[in-house]
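User: Second chain of the day. Same drill as before.
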Amino acid sequence: GRRHGLREARVVEVLGDMDDRRAISLIAIHSNDIPDVFPPEAEAEAEAAKPVGLGNREDLRHLPLITVDGADARDFDDAIWAAPDDDPKNKGGWQVIVAIADVAHYVTHNSALDREARKRGNSVYFPDRVVPMLPEALSNNLCSLRPDEDRPVMAVTMRLDAKGRRLEHKFHRAMIRSAARVIYEDLQAAHDGEPNEQTAPILDSVIEPLYGAWSALMRAREGRQPLDLDLPEMKITLGEDGKIADIHPRRRLDAHRVIEEFMIEANVAAAETLEEQKMPCVYRVHDVPDREKLLGLREFLSSLNLSITLGERPRPELFNRILVKAKGTDQWEAVNQSILRSQSQARYDPENIGHFGLARSRYAHFTSPIRRYSDLLVHRALIRGGGFGNDGLRDDEADRLAATSEHISNTERRAMVAERDANDRYMAAFMAERAGAEFEARINGVTRAGLFLTLTETGADGLLPMRYLHDDYYQVDEAQKALIGERSGARYRLGDSLTARLVEVNTLTGGLIFELPSETAKTTEGARGRPRIGKPRGEPRKEPGKRGTARKHSKRKGKRRT
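Assistant: Same format as last time:
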């Protein structure tokens, strides 16, 4: 019923006090309808799972494969190995193995685990927790490629020539025993001549061959010219009290690129194999940019005296040339973000249209079945196509791949929104104590609502409302992506740097409101009134192929979305 215009409500669950930072992720989880409690039958299946024997699997336990992840990772779903090819006909070539946890062995078609994994679609990562796709008995135990423990895998063995071109590849079910769990920083330090106690014994035999094979892959990459955007990430570290202890840019090391290129090559091999076998496949597709967006991009670049020629079908190298021209200039941020926002959004689809950003005609996700349902489906298709067992893709699964692809594309977007929402609330709680302080910022969006800003120090996003620009009447110039003062001609353009004062924080929504620290802003603030603060939304929040804004906050394993 209703009394005095109010609706009655029932408290379903108390998530916690807003002063308790641990409630922040729970708000994002529940507001985005992310399942975070496993059904008892799924938990029971996971707990009942047993280690796998060698059986008919190929025994690779004599090879020193290693896992490479971030320091805070707990599920290790990929291991790698490389060695010079001993075939005299392939001088300077490499043998490479990418071994991926054999999740399909444990998560079988239409089991309780399978139904829940499909429902979730993917794991979701927050600063203080992970909502896993699979129960921890699998994700952090039997499926995790822990060092010195036998683990079943789906592996692909590849031969590369000296220029990084894949000459041949073969998928097989195997058994491995990881030789080491290495973090990115230690892998890089070892390669740079500063190995520690863990990496020194495997430097020459394991680590250097990985970098050698990667160098070959990079030569092939340079020939393809995939889209080379700069997508920095900010890492949020929490203290024991649940509050932000540190925020810093996540360093991009060559070690990250080594793993990425190995994974990309394995993913391409999976897509090619399934196509050759005429098997159903969940492709990871990324369409060419929309023509209308490209015309808008060309107009904006023209305002910066940068030209772009649009052919019938644009290629990534077209954008790379523009990025090279802008590198090291004041226009760099604006150009990088504008190209990012002109891109289409990557998705899953049983119909292959290629991956524009990676400059690949065939691409699928194979390398993370612990945290992505798409990869589990690709594993099942490979099992069926290769005759590796009776736990491959079923006909009814194949029949509904279109619906499943749409569903997991949606759960991926849901996860990205939830992760962003939680990060914004954490950031707002962190910034609340600094209200009134001034910050260096960059304009990351220009709209009729005002200027969207990203703080240089923390990566926090907020809004400088139009009403706080008191000195003139500003119009939006869509072509130049700028606010231009009618009287003064003053201009605020995408990518510009400025100093902004934080005037209001809403920890519930994650909204931050800024003003310019001018005498005009100070004296007219009371007369103008403050805007009603919600969470600023608009142009900068768009999610293109890989990332949303050019700056993200993440606890993810350090491996990028592609």
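The chain has three domains: 22-277, 291-343, 427-553.

User: Great, on to the next one.
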